[in-house]
Every structure is written in C-alpha cells, then in structure tokens.
Amino acid sequence: MTIDAWLQAATADAERRGLSDLKPILETLAKVTAALRGADFNQSPVDIRQASGGANSRQLSDSATR
Fold first, then answer.
1. Domain definitions of the chain by residue range
2. What is the DSSP code (8-state) at residue 20?
3. C-beta of residue 7 within 8 angstroms of C-beta of residue 27
4. Tell me, what's the pLDDT at 30?
5. What whole-number distance in Å separates Cα of residue 66 and Cα of residue 61?
6. Dihedral sign, CA of 16, 20, 22, 25?
C-alpha cells in the first residue's frame, strides 16, 4: 500500500466515524512517513559530524578509539 492510498483510506475512515478533525494529523503523519522512508540511514552519525566539522567530531572520534 502506498502512503497516498493509506492517507485516502484513513481520511475516509475518519470521516465515516465523524472524526474529521483527524485529517490534519493524518496528513502530517503521511508526510513524515514519506520523509522517513526516503531518508538515507546508511551513514553513521559520527561520520556525518566528522564530515561537517561539528564541534563534537574530535571528541567522538577520540572516544571511539579508546
């Protein structure tokens, strides 16, 4: 099931139950789900901080080698 199909079904169900106030919440959930599904989780947070030169990058790399 696609996110769009789920959103349509969930919205219709909420309306049938008289819960039309749920529509904005369902739309937000659909957007967030799409963003999470599209995210690249293959890179370590440590790698990301080191590549960006973050303030904690040295501390993280030092503690990882101990």
1. 1-66
2. G
3. yes
4. 98
5. 9
6. positive
20, with CB counted inside 10 A (0-12, 13-18, 19+), is exposed
Q: What's the rounded mean pLDDT across residues 1-30?
A: 98
- Averaged pLDDT for residues 37-54: 73
d(CA 11, CA 24): 9
Q: How far apart are CA 46 and CA 60, in angstroms?
A: 7
Residue 52 has pLDDT above 80, yes or no: no
CB 60 within 8 A of CB 46: yes
CB 50 within 8 A of CB 61: yes
Radius of gyration for the chain, computed over Cα atoms and rounded to the nearest angstrom = 20
